[in-house]
Fold:
Amino acid sequence: MTQDLENPRAPKPGELTFDSPKGRGKPRRHLADMTGAERREAVATLGLPAFRADQVSRHYFARLSDDASAWTDIPAALRDDLASALTPPLMTSVRELTTDAGTTRKQLWRLFDGALVESVLMRYPDRVTMCVSSQAGCGMNCPFCATGQAGLTRNLSTAEIVEQVVAGARELARGDVPGGPGRVSNVVFMGMGEPLANYKAVVAALHRLVDKGPEGLGMSARGITVSTVGLVPRMRELAAEGIPVTLALSLHAPDDELRNTLVPVNTRWDIQEVLDAAWEYARVTHRRVSIEYALIKDVNDQAWRADLLAKRLRNKLVHVNLIPLNPTPGSKWTASRRQDEREFVRRLEAGGIPVTVRDTRGREIDGACGQLAALDS
Ligand code: SAH
Structure:
């Protein structure tokens, strides 16, 4: 940890249990924070029968309705009380930026305490992916990532995470996204924050996403990806949750010397430990682990590093996702040369490793990987 202690923004060992939001108070409790049983208790404290909780859940998760005046199966006199107890407003849209003829849409959200987070909707011919934030800011301090530069503001609540998905689902259902009405099929925890550093809220959010209606959105776990810098104890916990989401591991280097600088938490859990936890995840869930590798010119894109990466991943249930670096403002780093990228892919393939190069959708609206910064307001 010597390197970390010299760097005031790098996580210290004691900080790796940051499940409690800091800052001014807590976001309001929302039905998306609660299990079905907790929702029924909440309506009981209003003196109402349990089925009212199911009705509101159905409006929120199935009809995607946040307008209590449209809840016509509930007596008008009860609607406002139920809405204020179960569906308080959590965030307001500050700005929406669109590109790709409206099929890529980045939202900047302001939360109750002024914290800013971003989410991105990406519509493809065969699917719609929502990229969501799990924290305002991030404490992991990866030097190539825009979010990392400002440090951690706070953890998001479960409902603040779920609401980003529901907001995208509403836009699709309303027909606001070119391509006609549609549904969110995929969710990736690749927006702002380190999801496994906000473990409890993120796992509860996963439950809300996969729970069947009216308790949740009824999505398939197969369509959900949780991306991590490699918090090993939390990776092992996630494997045991029984929600077989895809795990993405942000590796970015096959050797500890370089990874210590690109992903500073590597000084706490090194590549061997992180890969062991990833293989354990694959063994328990039968899900192929995705290895994220941002290709940075002359930093991590050398042929020998491709060979070393292939060697470390050989014969595992794995897929490598190469991401051309999205340069962040003021950074000295840039994306690899085309020929180096091609050679990197070729060597991984020669080593028998499935590999794809990620498209960089949303670049023009600072909505691509690692560009979410929410510095403006
Ligand atoms: N904290 C999680 C989620 C972060 S964002 C994690 O680190 O995995 C998702 C992916 O984008 C991560 O793999 C992250 O390393 C990558 N990324 C961050 N900044 C980037 C940049 N400037 N260019 C390309 N990819 C970047």
Notes: The mean pLDDT is 91.
